[in-house]
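Technical annex, item 7. During the second reporting period the consortium partners agreed on a shared format for inverse folding records so that results from different sites could be compared directly. Each record opens with the tokenized structure and is followed by the designed sequence. A conforming record, contributed by the partner at site C, is shown below for reference.
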């Protein structure tokens, strides 16, 4: 069962920049969904309200947030007038959460923001500018990660990737020549950590399958099949906070175990390969094995100063 309702909690002071963000009728829905952890969620929301640069309606999908983080999120959002709560009462895969939002929004654009992503200043404003300028169906930011200890370009953003068909086989090919239009790079493949998509384009590929891996490839090929216009805006940078080794808090383990279940991953991998007749899709199981190392009892944190990670990065996120 899914319900929409304001959460309990006391009102908190408005964050800096919140009034400007929510002052006018929004053209963008923000789908705030869980990826695999919870400790960055508050920092992600604070950045969204302070730095989006554009009005939005927040669709907060509550796929059973743990009590350790719920109270802080509810306090932060209690006085925000632009929040739609979608309570699922069970764990959700990312696509399931996005399906719930897609079925409720009235805004012409949707900004997907996973709860371990920190946006840079004016991220939403600039993505929307690019979408309107190019008439694009989808605009992706530059994704950074912290695998090296400092922000650096994420592996799937580092080089152009094309989707090509040869006979009945489909290839996701690296090393493609870069194509540019008005300073924005054309893309065929993108990460779903964060992106802007028109509501019409999103609905055209919904309902998205409830898979645990390759969901970005599944969506990319579906949109490519439709001939959609997709670009990356190099002005927009977002930081994906999932650098190994993964330091899980004890309260994060149940969802993380659900998210990276090996049997579900294999089923999802087989589904995407078969659906699109993909010839060169990478083997996801070694990645799943690495993720599951975080669940070893000796690796899980049972003592910590706060249930929320502090936002340690400057507003202007730059790659090293």
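Designed sequence (site C submission):
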């Amino acid at each position: 069962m899914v319900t929409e309702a304001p959460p309990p909690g006391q009102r908190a002071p408005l964050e800096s920049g919140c009034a400007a963000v929510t002052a006018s009728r929004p053209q963008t829905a923000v789908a705030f969904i869980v990826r695999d952890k919870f400790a960055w969620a508050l920092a992600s929301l604070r950045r969204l309200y302070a730095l989006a640069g554009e009005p939005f309606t927040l669709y907060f999908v509550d796929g059973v947030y743990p009590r350790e983080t719920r109270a802080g999120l509810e306090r932060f959002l209690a006085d925000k007038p632009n929040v739609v709560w979608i309570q699922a009462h069970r764990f959700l895969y990312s696509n399931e959460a996005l399906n719930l939002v897609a079925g409720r929004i009235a805004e012409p654009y949707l900004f997907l923001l996973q709860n371990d992503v920190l946006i840079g200043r004016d991220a939403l404003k600039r993505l929307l500018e690019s979408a309107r300028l190019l008439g694009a169906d989808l605009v992706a930011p530059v994704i950074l990660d912290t695998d090296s200890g400092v922000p650096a370009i994420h592996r799937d953003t580092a080089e152009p990737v094309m989707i090509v068909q040869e006979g009945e086989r489909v290839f996701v090919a690296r090393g493609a020549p870069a194509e540019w239009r008005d300073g924005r790079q054309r893309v065929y493949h993108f990460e779903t950590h964060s992106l802007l998509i028109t509501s019409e384009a999103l609905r055209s590929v919904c309902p998205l399958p409830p898979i645990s891996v390759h969901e970005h490839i599944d969506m990319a090929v579906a949109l490519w099949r439709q001939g959609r216009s997709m670009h990356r805006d190099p002005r927009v940078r977002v930081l994906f906070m999932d650098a190994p080794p993964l330091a899980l808090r004890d309260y994060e383990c149940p969802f993380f175990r659900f998210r990276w279940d090996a049997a579900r991953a294999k089923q999802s991998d087989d589904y995407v390969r078969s659906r699109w007749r993909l010839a060169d899709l990478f083997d996801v199981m070694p990645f799943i094995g690495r993720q599951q190392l975080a669940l070893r009892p000796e690796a899980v944190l049972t003592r910590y100063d706060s249930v929320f990670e502090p936002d340690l990065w400057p507003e202007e996120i730059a790659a090293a």
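The chain has a mean pLDDT of 89. The CA atoms of residues 262 and 289 lie 8 Å apart. All partners now use this format for quarterly exchanges.
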